[in-house]
Amino acid sequence: MKSKRSSTLWYAFLLAALALPFLPGGIGNTFHGHVLTMILLYASMAQSWNIISGYCGQISFGHAVFFGIGAYGAALAVVTFDSLPWYGVPAGAAAAAIVSVLISAPCFRLKGHYFAIATFATVEIFNRLFMIWDWVGGAIGLDYPILEDGWRNFSWSGTKNGYYLGALALFTLVFGIVRRIESHRMGYYLRAVREGQETAESLGVNSTFVKLSAMALSAALAALCGAFFAQYNYRVDPPMVMSLDMSMKFVLITILGGLGTFWGPLLGAAILIPLQEYTRAYLSHLGSGVDLMIFGLIIIVTMIKQPRGIMGIVHSLRKKPETPAASEEICEDREGER
Amino acid sequence: MGNFLQVLIDGLLNGLLYALVAAGLSLIWGVMDVINFAHGEFLMVAMYLSYWLGFLLDIDPFISWIAGGIFLFLLGAVTYRLIIKNSLGKAAMAPLLATFGLSMLLKNFCMNVFTPNFRLLSGNWLEGRTIAFGGAIVPLPQLVTALFAFAVLGVLYWMLKKTRLGWAIQATAMDKEAAELMGIDTERIYLLVFGMGGACVGIAGSLMTSYLAVYPEVGGLFSLIAFVVVALGGFGSIPGALLAALLIGLVESFSGFYIAAVVKYVAVFAVYLGVILLRPRGLFGW
Question: What is the ipTM of this complex?
């Protein structure tokens, strides 16, 4: 899986991303800097979801819960305990992992759409519980006080380079872990469970353990992204972090890029996030909702034309017709499209 | 005691409304194993249609439900032809995600054109009319909607069990290939089923306009409740959906009154999770 070429690509990408803010006329405090930061954040979120849903095949619509717990972890540390976000981050990640295991252990018995709807229901339950739970700010949410700039508070009000580098660190961590898993024994277990749970079990894979540990890892990483989101937006409230719409972002970005592929989440985020941010900024004269209408249209077209996402397109381009039989097949496909 | 009766009646009336909203979803899920994520937005479209017919042409919702049913039948059929047919069987969840895209498109289109404001139709025939029933008050618009729910579910059930079309639909649901070998045009059945699912939600949406406000996000909660009702009732079972909807309506009204209004949906979804974990395929599933 980890060929020399893909390793070169990976390190080159990280180096280029790291060098970007230090170049003359780098990102500074521009809108493009904001978009780049968001791409890295949403790519990390999508990749964390990809672990359980892409590699392991358990499509979850409940990741907003774990994302939200992470966001509340950081915000509670800063706002309620008047302390540093760094104490809230591991607490949030651990809480998310525990909650994810408690929810998933019974829900993994459900199949197909029953599992999907059960995960929707958990998002609604958590959303409404956090709405009425005064300790976490209820429906008003938690607003950050004014903090000193710097890594200590993980907060910058002037130049946003700090957030960009923080997002890059998050991105490197999440993608690095997935890269490690892909070639590790665990990665093979995950894919074995996805391809056929009974077969995997008959070969001695403990599928329950594999699914639960993948879910816990996925939830903890989603919580880290949530903590970053809270720090970046300076506030959290339930509709912002624990909504079905947030859950769907995890799903849609990964699916658009390519479910169960390493680069898919990054590609999906690199297309959807700029689209969303720039249409919101430049098409606002057309009235509200235009950005989300375009978003919806792209999802429909992707699902109809290439449900395997951008990675699916890349693969079909790479596979040049070598044998006459293969080229005939492609011709037939094209005719079918007409 | 008066309170208890009132809460009971409210729960049953709401439950029957949920049953009507969920019936179309249940049919589509049962026959095609597809979740139409735009179901709530179909409901919203029907509500807007009924609202504008009432507002501009003075047509009462208890007449415009016919228009709502027909329009949503067509919308369902077009959705099937353009989206479902092309995404069915391609990848896991592809139709679900494609209809999620459709729901975003419809919701934000209405947001853009009709503004996010709440609109309540006034001057209906039954507006504000109630009948007293043993110390409880039964609002007439809700009662008539609930009776419609019974009628629509009854017709749907009769159609599935007693007519040739219904048998063809059941055969398609059981085994598509075998049904094709028996000479059933399954393509046409799918189209009809999606249209009928749309028509059910169209009738529900039109009638609801007689007592509920319409706004672009009205479908969100209703579609979630419809998902829960269908999953709780079990794969494509109409009696199951009815029973589940009544249960959900009662849980909602009793927890809202006896615990706190803010926890009623927590209770609804918690009851759903509790039941589904004991019976992973719903009350009437197999």
Answer: 0.86
